[in-house]
Amino acid sequence: MKKLCVAVSLIVFVLFASLVHAGDVYTVRVNGAINPPVAGFLENSISKANKDNAEALVVLLDTPGGLDSSMRDIVKKIMDSPVPVVVYVAPSGARAASAGAIILLASHVAAMAPGTNVGAAHPVNIGKEKTDEVMMKKVVKDAEAYSKSIAAQRGRNVDFAAKAVTESISITAKDALTKKVIDVMADSVDDLLTQIDGRSVATKKGTVVLHTKDAKKIDLPMPFKFRFLAYVSDPNVAYILMMLGIYGILFEFYSPGAVFPGVIGGVCLILALYAFQAIPISFAGLALILLGIVFFVLEVKIVSHGLLGIAGIVAVVIGSLMLVDLPGSALSISLSTIILVAVISAIFVFGILSFAVRAQFMKVRTGREGLIGETGFARSTFTAGEKGKVNVHGEIWSAVSEDTLNEGDEIVVAAVDNLIVKVRKKGG
Fold this sequence. Notes:
There is one protein chain. By secondary structure, the protein is of the alpha/beta class. It folds into 3 domains: 23-223, Alpha-Beta Complex (2-enoyl-CoA Hydratase, Chain A, domain 1); 234-361, no CATH class; 367-425, CATH 2.40.50.140. The protein is 50% helix and 18% strand. It has a 6-stranded parallel beta sheet with strand order 8-5-3-2-1-11, with helices on both faces. The protein has a 5-stranded mixed barrel with strand order 12-13-14-16-15. It has a 3-stranded mixed beta sheet with strand order 4-6-7. The chain is elongated.
């Protein structure tokens, strides 16, 4: 009986072990700035991993940082996840800077590949108004306390977490492992899964033992919705969309009925407004850009010999530089993009827009109005006040003349009344 019990226990243990090892490991990749679409993608991925009872979710991270609000949304989702979330900074050459460093600290298992770095989490002021020195100190203190609390909860280096915020320090993967900022340094995902196999981690549902060595890896690609929104949320793309939207609507205003420029302009402007909700912008920079557009409009209305157009380009360039005042950041507009837009603006103002406006003031060349001022010749002799026939534009018209006309005399159309033209002798 005792042997039977032992045998049954062994069978149950083997079956249980096989079930434990049956869990899949989901992997996702995050490259680029941390913004609302990326936060939404990671939140959905964590939810799916929990719904499918995955063994773990591995986030391959390479980011220069991003928005504090998006980072906090991701951290809260990780902290609240029953399934372990492993953040792996990879491949070699990748980084977890700024917001990425806090996300790494918040993970259940923090890992880095050789040749990567982490840190530089000092908060940077971006927004519609400049933050004064006192307020900025409060922001830094809040960020410092936040990163320290996360590091303490995960049993990681609290001193590094504080200095990454206050002093913007950044360290290599090797130093991060030595200083207990991360748990593992791995060459690849397979190496990572082998190293963390059997590790116990504290999750929302309690202590979980990882069984990842032989687990099946399932990659979760970013859905098109999040890829598209993440692309649009890039400050350079959002900036270009804003300018295209303004120019499209402006062209439609000066050339009614074109339809296409107005539709495309409206769509671009809406997408830009969505992006700028996630990227706080400077009102002063936006005002300068709009002032530049006003100068462009005046350029085609007033004879300024190009001075207003040049002033408009200068205003657009300066406003663009001020629009997202965060040089060298993942949330800044590159100088090359601004120069490109300035060149396109010059072409638009001195070329396309001026042509469209001039077209509105050109003399009508078709229909009844198009006949006025046109020349022709008399096909018959008739006196002033009498009706006769004239040839205009190769067409024969009934005419009433202000002067006596002989056949073959050149005439000028003075007015059109229904199907009768009123003419006078040319030069008369």
